[in-house]
Amino acid sequence: MTPIHTIADLRRALEAERRSGRTIGLVPTMGSLHRGHMTLVDRARAACEIVVVSIFVNPTQFGPGEDLATYPRDLDADLAECRAHGVDVVFAPGVEEIYPEPLATEIDVAPLSTILIGVERPGHFQGVATVVAKLFNIVGPTHAFFGEKDYQQLTVIRRMVRDLSYGIAITGVPTVREEDGLACSSRNQKLVPEDRAAAAVIAKALGEAERLIAAGVRDPGAIVAAVERTIAVEARADIRSVDLRDAETLAMVETIGETPVVVLVTVRFGDVLLIDQRTVAAAPSAKRPAKGETP
Ligand code: AMP
Question: Tell me, which fold does domain 7-173 have in CATH?
């Protein structure tokens, strides 16, 4: 398995597979692959006949002053991981290949792209949706795999696929974590040791949110406050946002009811921005009347 760098070569490599109707699973990544990515790959391997991993640090999803230049890159190590996990094709194009000229077309899954992380990172989700649409058109997958860790991204992609009738089965994969609960992320390696140790507080706070909801707390404000309080115990943590939203639509929630909610957290440690989430299916708040019983 050698990496493919051009769109033409990629299309050629997959032509026979597509013609014979094989299932093709795509795992889009920005490389620097870790256990989280490889879990997506394993899911794709189990579900599809052909597995394609794309490795592309997409410049259009980074804002000015963000970490595009310092984003970790290690293609050789990524290829070794992909080989070890039975990947059939690695597509690793250069920026010129994907953007030979500035695009005149952009995919904007508004209003999902302008809320939550989209407020702090304007243009980010437009960059993500547009590059994923391009990857879908280039690879032509039957299935694609995304992490729940980037929950808003997954929601944007699901909506784009629905709106544009892509006919690609999207699988969201639960977040893979380090032993102390910190979500695996390429950015974790940029944390200084003190921040790395402190960052475990994020998962702890999400666990607290889950516990409170299970215990019957129905006020989103109380959950958000509890998460903020738990994280604030760590002086090194700079809380950027804590939100509780409807898990499917990301709409605001007035009372936590019987539909699942998601708690979304963004915390900065030094100059490293970490995100995490926890979906919680709230327990029914009241005993339903049994058949024949008057409420
Ligand atoms: P990235 O390389 O950060 O763009 O991530 C590529 C894909 O891997 C995205 O769909 C991410 O949501 C997913 N991913 C990243 N970290 C994790 C993790 N810890 N657990 C599960 N999926 C992840």
Answer: Rossmann fold (3.40.50)
Q: Using a 6 Å CB cutoff, which residues line ligand 1? A: 29-30, 36-37, 39-40, 146-147, 149-150, 173, 175-176, 183-186
Mean pLDDT value of segment 177-181: 97
For the annotated catalytic residues, the residue numbers are 37
- Out of 26, 27, 29, 56, give the residue to mutate to test ligand 1, the one with the largest number of ligand atoms within 8 Å of its CB: 29
pLDDT tens for 262-295 read 999 999 999 999 999 999 987 665 444 445 544 4
Q: Where are the beta strands (DSSP E) in the chain?
A: 24-29, 50-55, 89-91, 143-147, 169-173, 238-246, 261-269, 272-280
Which residue's CA is the closest to the ligand 1 atom numbered 22?
147
Helices 75-84 and 35-47: angle between axes, nearest 10 degrees: 40
What CATH number belongs to 186-280?
3.30.1300.10
Q: What is the pTM of this model?
A: 0.94
Dist. CA 38 → ligand 1 center (Å): 9
Domain boundaries, the chain: 7-173, 186-280
